[in-house]
Design a protein that fits this description.
disordered N terminus; two-stranded antiparallel ribbon; 7 helices; about 200 residues; alpha+beta; elongated; five-stranded mixed beta sheet
Length: about 200
């Protein structure tokens, strides 16, 4: 049997899984029409619980933390900084289905810059939560705007949604695009066109 811990939950690796979480997954399996006690599903509740803890690890961090280490010595550089095509995965808050795509994050520095890997960490910090793509786009841009104080921020996300491709209208290969422009990228058409061109839009 999968659960002989007297309702106390299970410990595997470093992730404690409460018994009620495993039982919730068993209930879903039964409701879906399968037997949670058959061989292939016996350990599934624990695996699902541990997987969801990992999918949602963004709740345990502050994405803004990654922008706390800045660099002033940039040799007078004052043009766009862009990280293009950052892959990510999230889950929609409506059906808990996967959102899979890429993000393009750019900013026009003010007095300092941040390590480029930190932009990806901000993305993942927000993506590893239950999300809608529109809010994810806004959260990334707002975080950079508030903590780096740049002259402009541009975030574009392109993603497919499992809640649309695997259920409902079941329409594969449809890509949703969202964007948020702040500062000069919102106010100046020339700057907006430049950053979008660099993103390949």
């Amino acid at each position: 049997m999968d659960n002989d811990n007297n309702g106390q939950g299970s410990q595997q690796g470093k992730v404690f899984v409460p018994a009620e979480v495993e039982e919730a997954v068993r209930t879903l399996i039964r409701w879906s029409g399968d037997d949670p006690q058959r061989e292939g599903l016996v350990d599934t509740p624990r695996r699902v619980a541990r997987a969801w803890k990992e999918y949602c690890e963004g709740y345990s961090e502050d994405p803004a933390y990654h922008l706390s280490r800045i660099f002033h010595e940039v040799g007078g550089y004052d043009e766009i900084v862009l990280l293009k095509g950052i892959p990510f995965q999230s889950h929609c808050e409506h059906h808990m289905a996967p959102i899979t795509g890429v993000a393009h994050i750019g900013y026009l520095p003010g007095d300092y810059v941040v390590g480029i890997s930190k932009l990806a960490r901000v993305l993942h910090g927000f993506a590893r939560r239950l999300q809608v793509q529109e809010r994810l786009t806004a959260e990334i841009a707002d975080c950079i705007w508030q903590h780096l104080h740049p002259r402009g921020v541009a975030v574009v996300i392109e993603a497919t949604h499992g809640c649309m491709t695997g259920r409902g209208v079941r329409t594969p290969d449809v890509v949703m695009k969202t964007s948020r422009m702040m500062g000069v990228f919102r106010e100046e058409e020339k700057s907006r066109k430049e950053v979008l061109r660099l993103m390949g839009m």
